[in-house]
Model the fold of this input.
Amino acid sequence: MSGAAYGFFGRYLEIDLTAGAVRVRPLDSALVADYIGGRGLATRLFCDEADPAGDPLGPENVIVIAVSPLVGTNAPTSARGHMVFKSPLTGLIGTSNSGGGWGFSFKAAGYDALVIKGRSPEPVWVDITPAEVKILPADKLWGRDIHETTAELTAGFAAADRPRVLCIGPAGENLVRFADVANDKNRVYGRGGPGAVWGSKNLKAVRVAGREKIQIHDPEKYKSGYDQAMYLIRQAPVTKRILRELGTAGLVELINVIDMLPHRNFQDCTHREEDLERISGETIARTILERAAGCYLCPIGCQRHTRISRDGSPDETGEGPEYETVVLMGPACDIYDLAAITTANYRCNELGLDTISFGGTVACAMELFEAGLLPKEAAGGLHLRFGNAAVLEKLAIETAHRRGFGDLLAEGSFRLGAKYGRSDLSMSVKRLEIPAYDPRASFTQALGFMTSPSGACHLRGGYAVSLAFFGGNKEIPRFSLLQSPIAIRNMQNTGILQDSLGICRFTGYAFGSDPWSRMLSGVTGMDFSVARLEEIENRVAALERLFNLAAGAGPSDDVLPPRFADSAVVVAGEKRMVTREAQERMRRDYYRVRGWDEEGRPTAALLSSLRLAPIGRRPA
Amino acid sequence: MTGCCGKKMTVRVRFFAYFRDLFGGKEKIFDLDMGTKAGELLDLLGDSPARRDELSRPNLIVMINGADLASRGGPAAELREGDTVAIFPLMGGG
Done:
């Protein structure tokens, strides 16, 4: 490596699975200056390689995983990685972030990013160490679940030398469109179906290990940001104790209080308090929680390590459920059975299914069933009525293996609804299932779902209603058409920065950009002032938009499902919906604050200021 | 309490997260004078230094029947018979 690189190694790996070839390529420091790492860098490398018109499950799709210059330091929550791919669920950019230790170990192998292309003729896994990169047969791993695969590939190592494994389960192998990719067994790149892209390439796992260390340019500057960050994390109640005590499911009762908790495939937001108490964060903590834990380098600790005891069955242990899982597999299906939700969550973790899309797809199936559109025979003889908790675990297994009705569920809610002539019953944006916040209860939330580049995501515009609570003197009223576009632009930009830094959303409850600016500048020796970080956020947002435009997206994709414009829910005593006119106005204003034209295209002036060029279809 | 005519009303107060430990339960029912304001209820709840500290945090969230306090006019908002007031610290997740 060059002796001048601080915070990064100046090289990335490119693996062509078709040719079985590995290349080490130089990483220009200008890319770090313009995109940092993580989501920013991965998006840049992806857009340079991928064909926007290509088949997401064809060999032409490209997977890029990147880490940030902070990965390798002790910055709080900084071990995260980011994966970019063309999504088989949305047909647009797929962008997914995960905690866990894989990102840290990958960086310690001496690389800043990993680019995977082509398709192996046979199942393979990849072993990456500083000494060599090997592509190895995976025929004995194929068919095994995520926990088994991880155990197999980490067996026989002493704890200090134990490698980390990123892998898919049967769901990815079977090209389930919402299959995930997992590291540390239960930390997942969850949304948009990256597991199916891995499966389409016959790629089972990537194991990493190493002890390479980055150089830090200005340790004192870095430490000043670090000290401030740690102090603030220990001061803010959310990061100091609430997430550790209650997990993310602490939100269940809160989101209900503000009339936003989905019910019966988003048909209403009405629940009985005693039902919600059965699945709340408090109940999880009191009844099934064995211990809370954090991802690598995380002092916050929202992970739920749980145990389920059921009569007649041996105890089961695993991780979860988190808030989104509780609600999508729970009230969204009219289910309030914590054991059933948790057990199905365990199966999703093992088999490699995104719990949000799985729950949203089951909820859609239940509505189709109750409407008489989905015959019982087509549903494998199951009574898919709302509230039937007994089907959850079985459906997770069938979906991951594409068996019976599971083959249809594996396509996601949009394609399932379309098969029965009712794609409008898919509660999705850009075909990605909506997380656990009803958009009618907050215009800001609605716009967040509408404009996320990867579809309705809990990490890209999810929980936007929180802006109404903790904005301090910048609080955004929940129903402000005027303020929502700027609020969502800012919230999305914060997410881009966090994903590019490789750090967790939840640090945002304790502090903003300033400590990160000092840590990143201290590590790299580059100018990452807050103003420069904002420029980078806008650059990445524009680049993601350019890819989506080249992939065929336009304003008509930046909309909510018709249900939210046509039928009201009662919020704080008033009937609320998000009319098409309200959606159009917010979308138009959002494009303006982004510097995009009325068709949502970044203007030439914006592209020039961000030093970006439009993306066209790549020559075959 | 500012009162009028000696009439009383019932207001339900719900607590969330660690406020349940702080206030000794999930909820309390208060019989308040008609016309009692939200700010006066918060004063009533802040009956110890620890409770006052928490109720003074800038990120305290107070909802009345699902609507945030600011949209009801802030601490000067008059409570009504049957209101449910939810009080919680800033909570994260998602």
